[in-house]
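Batch manifest, entry 17 of 40.
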Amino acid sequence: MARKPKAPAKSKAAAKAPANSGSRLNDDIGEDKRLKMFQLQLEVRHLETRAHDLFLQNLVKGTSHLAVGQEAIASGFATAMRSDDYTFCTYRGHAHTMVRGASMTAVLGELMGRECGLLNGKGGSMHLTSVEHGAMGSYAIIGAHLPIAAGAAWKSQYLGTGQVSVCFFGDGTTNIGAFHEAINMAAVWKLPVVFVCENNLYMEYTPIGDVTAVEHPAADRASAYGLPSIIVDGNDADAVYRVARDAIEMAREGGGPSLIEAKTYRHFGHSRADPAKYRPEGELEEWMKKDPIPMYRQRLLDFGIGENVVSSIEEMVMKAVDDATEAAKASPEPGSEYLFKDVWADGGASWRN
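Output type: structure tokens
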């Protein structure tokens, strides 16, 4: 029998911010969840911006893929998920790992290759994982995690735990075989999994429209697997939350999978090595007008949430990012004792025949 879903935890911001003098929001989302989503979006934006700065200081090694501009998707889904649900994401996974509860220090430490990192500095930017928070890995191979997410959902279905897997991927993944195989099997077996295409218009450097026969690479293919076509504004956390809530609830109750296409835009290039010169003139500027964070901030004010409440969240987040930065910088690089840690399932490194 599926377990009863836990009530969403209040955000730290909602707990610490000054009380709103106006009436609380009584719609289908409510003030507490909105404050939580605002805080999560800010945490992701400022931590990734800080990671960019640290990269320029040569403190973040290798490459990294930022989700600046896409924060509303991760925040909306995290707010709708249960604490024991599973998240699967791509190498652009800082946001999805953080919103599930991984600490800023652990995320920055991993990017910087420090002992305090989520994986003691061995995984780096492209392989963030925090099993204790349900963040089941960032996958560098395009589409590789979709069948794994379906497998985790099968486990949940078999054991009757009520857990739901939520799998995030980019628009380019929709042209990979694993995408079709995973969604087909999930539909056939009615697995409790939600597939979320973060369509930011580009697959690395190529516009998705140049290599795909349909306008909406995920949503237009849903009907082939008996699923409804779902498109959501990926820059609007409220819209994302509502779609996520309904899809997750349906999956948890045995109604099977959903395929959601969230339209969004990344502000930076594909990776740190990409200046994004291929974008048409004026495209970035138009999308910057749809930046999810200023839009959401204004929505809070329009709903009557006080400026002092909003400002206190912003100040709290910036202090948390500064503190995490200093803690990660102070952490040592991992010693040789970590070389053979977690090589095998039992945690050892002895050879297996």
